[in-house]
Amino acid sequence: RAKAQGKACYEIFDPSMHTKAVTLLQLESDLRRATERQDLMIHYQPIVSLSSGEIAGFEALLRWHHPERGWVKPGELIPVAEDTGLILPIGYWVLREACRQLKIWQEQFATEPPLTVSVNLSGKQFKEANLLGQIQHIITETQINPKTLKLEITESVIVENAEAAAKTLSELRAMGVQIYIDDFGTGYSSLGYLHRFPLDALKIDRSFIINMCNETESAEIVQTIINLAQNLQIYIVAEGVETQQQWEQLRKIDSTGGYGQGYYFSHPLSGAEVEQLLAEEVQW
Ligand code: C2E
Ligand code: MG
Ligand code: MG
Ligand code: MG
């Protein structure tokens, strides 16, 4: 509260900050209404096996269609949801909806191995006391095999409180769900701690993939992360694969049996578009 008041005083002297605060407040009340009016939806981006070139699963990405502003990007939406605590109900909605959808697709398209869904967890969700109970509840309710659910958390969230994070991750692992580290390489990157956490994959941040074919430094970082994952006996997922050259290079150097994700394969899609893609049995 004191902090909020401090901000309010400052606004008087800075009109641009005032505008920003008003926009944020407006966004917050709109977001509250959106959750009530069901204006939120999920788009799904394919994740492709580097070895087979087939779709292995999807990442669930939150989308908000605002009545006046049109599409609001997660980059703008998630921080507001975090600050207001709305991330908890929204986050569980995404998780439940993604699992419900996955179950339907698994039954409709019986691939081997079965399709998976990846869901992002924010720091606030990860620290929430009810996390394990809620996830267990959603798994039971939607009847998905927990092995086909992948939870994505960023490095900074687990490093922040390593002790507690290790415990939560072990409990999630015991439930059978997979743990993916999102945006890997951009955080604290104290590599020594990684073996202490039960992990299933490192998602190599887009910023390294973008330049891996024209910058030795990025190429080396990608190779280093692949070696690291191989030592830990976990997978890699390359984020932001946009060109054929990146795809081919990744297929050559990956030794983890990993995956790629990015516009080269597909933008995030609506549920109906996903069904079309799966029916076509696309392969890269
Ligand atoms: P993320 O988890 O790293 O998701 C990948 C982001 O990269 C997505 O952005 C996706 O659309 C974008 N992307 C994928 N392929 C490419 C590519 O080839 N090139 C480029 N330039 N971008 C690509 P999006 O959907 O805007 O989401 C941004 C971030 O918002 C996500 O990053 C994630 O951290 C967060 N987010 C999205 N949905 C949720 C959610 O349901 N819960 C939480 N807690 N966070 C979410
Ligand atoms: Mg993610
Ligand atoms: Mg990511
Ligand atoms: Mg990212």
From TrEMBL:
Ranges where the EAL domain occurs: 24-282
Domain of life: Bacteria
Name of the protein: Bifunctional diguanylate cyclase/phosphodiesterase
Species of provenance: Merismopedia glauca CCAP 1448/3
